[in-house]
Amino acid sequence: MSTPDTSLLPRDTPVQLIDEHGTATPDPDYALPSAERLQQAYASLVNGRRINDQCNALVRQGRLAVYPSSNGQEACQVAAALALAEGDWLFPTYRDSVSVIARGVAPEDAMVLLRGDWHSGYNPHAFGVAPQSTPLATQLLHAVGFAHAAMLRGEPTVVLAMCGDGATSEGDFHEAMNFAAVFKLPVVFFVQNNEFAISVPLSRQTAAPSLAHKAIGYGMPGRRVDGNDVAALLAVLQEAVDRGRRGDGPTLVEAHTYRMLAHTNADDDTRYRERDEVQAWVARDPLSRVRTYLRAEELLDDAAEAAMTEEAEGIAAELRAAMNADPELDPQELFAHVFAERPASLEAQWELLHDEIERTEAGA
Amino acid sequence: MDRHPRTETRGGDAAAGSGIDAPGTASTAEHVVETMTMAAALNRALADALAEDERVLVFGEDVGALGGVFRITDGLTARFGERRCFDTPLAESGIVGTAVGMAMNGLIPVVEMQFDAFALPAFEQVVSHVAKLGNRTRGDVRMPMVIRIPFGGGIGGVEHHCDSSEAYYAHTPGLTVVSPSNPQDAYSLLRAAIASPDPVIFMEPKKLYWSKGVVDTSITADLRRASVVREGSDVTLISYGPSVAVALEAAEALAAEGRSAQVVDVRTLTPFDDETVSNAVRGTGRAVVIAEAPGFASVASEIQARVFEQCFEVLEAPVRRVTGFDTPFASPKFEHWYLPDVDRVLDAVDSLHWEG
Ligand SMILES: Cc1ncc(C[n+]2csc(CCOP(=O)(O)OP(=O)(O)O)c2C)c(N)n1
C-alpha cells in the first residue's frame, strides 16, 4: 500500500473567489470565470430564485403537493448545470429542481413530480438529466453506472451527481465513491452541505474534519468550496468536470451553503434552529454578492438587470399559468408503463379501472 | 467452453479505447444440442448472449478469474475480456445501483448476487429503482437487466446460504421473477431474460446446478408462459424452480398408486400466467402448490388464491399448499425436515376429497 497522496486532501477553508461583500479575492489555483460566464450565471441565479419563490407560493396555494426549496442554495444549483456540457448527465435529488430547469427542462415538466401528476415529467434522454431521486444517495450509484457505461462505450460523457450532507451517511454514497474511484470514472460527486438533514445537524452526520475529507479514503481528490459563491463553484466544478473528461477519474466537491427555508413546507424549522443563525446567512446570499461584483465592475447595468427580471417574471408567470390549469390525467396510465408490454395478469385490473372510470363519468 | 467459436471481443482489452458497439455487430453463437448440467447451461446462455450482443455485460463478486462461487461465469472473462465480464468491489447495492445507470446508458447488465441472503443489501435499489424507473419515466427509460440470484436449500448450506427470497421480489410490481427447473429452461429462460426490455430477477435453484439434461440452444422460451411438464388427469401439482423435481417425483409415486398427476412448472412467478395454470386445474379439478419458501404470504399462497378465484366452480377440494415452515431456513442437519418432500406432497394429495 502506498502512502496517501495528500494532494487529494481538501484545503482547510473553502475556495472563494468573490467574498460576501462582492469583492474578488484572487486565488492561486482558481481563476475567476470570465465576465460573460458570470453574467450568464447571474441571469440563471435570478431565474432560480424566482422559480424557488414561485414554487413556494404554489405550495401555499395548494397547487404543488410539496416543494423542497433550494432557497439560499441557488449558486450550487446553477453552477452544477453550467459546469456540464451538452451530452453530459446530471443526477439530481428532490431539492435540485432549479438545476434540472437550468439544464433545459421546462419548469412545469420539472414540477410534475411535486404536483403529484406523475413521478417524473421529462424524458431524461432529451436533457441529460436523470429523474429526481427521492431515496437518498441511491442516484449516486446510477450516476457511477452511467459513467461506467459511457467509458465502455467510448463516449466522453461526464456525470455530475448531487446529494446533500445527510446523504453522505448512507451506504450508497460510499459504495458509489468507491466504485467510481476503482474504475476511474468521469463522475463529479457534488455535495451541497446545507448544514441540515431535515432537523439533524451536520455534527450528527460526521466526525470528519469536512465531508470533502472523505474523498481521500477512496483515492480521489476532495474539494471544498464556498457554496454561495457562484464564481468559486463554477471554477471548482469545472476543474472536476475537466478532470473526469481527461480520464483522470472522479472528484468529490463539498459546497458549504445553507438551506434558508424549512426542509419542505411540511417542516417546522423553528424546532431545531435559531432564527439568528438563519439571519446570519442572509448576508451571504448567493445572488447579492455576484450582483455587487458585476455592478462594481460595470458588467451589469440597469438595462441588463431589467431584462433579467423580465425573463424571470416571464418564467414565473408561465409556471403559474401551467400550475393553475388542471391537466388532463388518465388514471389508466397506472398500468401503461409498469412493463414494456402490459402482461395478461394486469389486464383484469386495467379493465376494472376502465369500468369504474366509465361509471364515474356516466354518473357525473 | 472450447466448443465455442472464438468471437472478436471488442471489449476484450481493458486498455483499448474502442467502444461497445450496437447489437448486430457481434457473431451468432454456435447451435448445440448436448447433455449438460444446469450450471453449464447457464454459463452457455451467458456466453451466447455476450457473443451475440455487445451491450451485454456480466459483473458481480468473484465472477471474473474465479468464474463465480458456483462457476456459472466460468471462462467468461478469459473469452470476452475484462470489459465484458468483471469483478466489482464487494458491495451489492453498488452492483445493482451501477447496473441501473448502465441500463440507463444503453447497456444490458447481467449481475450476479453471490447468495440469496447477500442480495438483500441491494434490495432498496431493486425495489425503488430497478422495478420503478420504467414506470417513473413513462417508458422513456427502460431497465433491461438481469439480476441472477442463487436461491433455495438442498445443498447443506449454513445460515444465510439457503433462503428463498422470491416472494419479496414477486411482490414488487415491475419486476419479472423467473426460476428455471431444468437445464433447457435455464438456458432458454436466461436468454429470454437478457433479451427482455424489463428487469428480470433470475432465481437459480442451487440444488439443481449440477442436475443434467439435454439442452438445445435453438429452443426459445416465452418469459410469460408457464409450462405443463407432465400430463395427468386427476390432480395438478403446481410448482417452480427446485420444487418441480419434487412434484415430478410425487407424480411418479402417484402413478404407481393409480392416480394420474399433472405437473405445471410456473417458470415465471410474475407476471403470472393465469391462463396456463387455470386451464390445467380446470382439467383435473384438484390442485396442490409446492414451494420451498415459508408458506406465509408466499408465492405459493398467491398461486393458491388465484386458483381458488379462477377455478372455484370446478374444484373438487380445497387447493392445498406444501411449503417450507414459517421458520428461518433450517440448519444443515435439519434441512431434510424443513424442505417439502414427496411424502408431504402425497399426504396433501390424499387429503383432496377423493371419496365417491
Ligand atoms: C433512504 C432515505 N431515507 C430517508 C429519507 C427521508 N428524507 C428525505 S430528505 C431527508 C434529509 C436529507 O438531508 P440531506 O441529504 O442533507 O439533503 P437536504 O434535504 O438537506 O438537501 C430525509 C431523511 C429518504 N428520502 N431516503
UniProtKB/TrEMBL annotation, chain A:
<dbReference type="Pfam" id="PF00676">
    <property type="entry name" value="E1_dh"/>
</dbReference>
<feature type="domain" description="Dehydrogenase E1 component">
    <location>
        <begin position="49"/>
        <end position="330"/>
    </location>
</feature>
<dbReference type="InterPro" id="IPR001017">
    <property type="entry name" value="DH_E1"/>
</dbReference>
<keyword id="KW-0560">Oxidoreductase</keyword>
<dbReference type="InterPro" id="IPR017596">
    <property type="entry name" value="PdhA/BkdA"/>
</dbReference>
<dbReference type="InterPro" id="IPR029061">
    <property type="entry name" value="THDP-binding"/>
</dbReference>
<keyword id="KW-0786">Thiamine pyrophosphate</keyword>
<keyword id="KW-0670">Pyruvate</keyword>
<protein>
    <submittedName>
        <fullName>Pyruvate dehydrogenase (Acetyl-transferring) E1 component subunit alpha</fullName>
    </submittedName>
</protein>
<dbReference type="InterPro" id="IPR050771">
    <property type="entry name" value="Alpha-ketoacid_DH_E1_comp"/>
</dbReference>
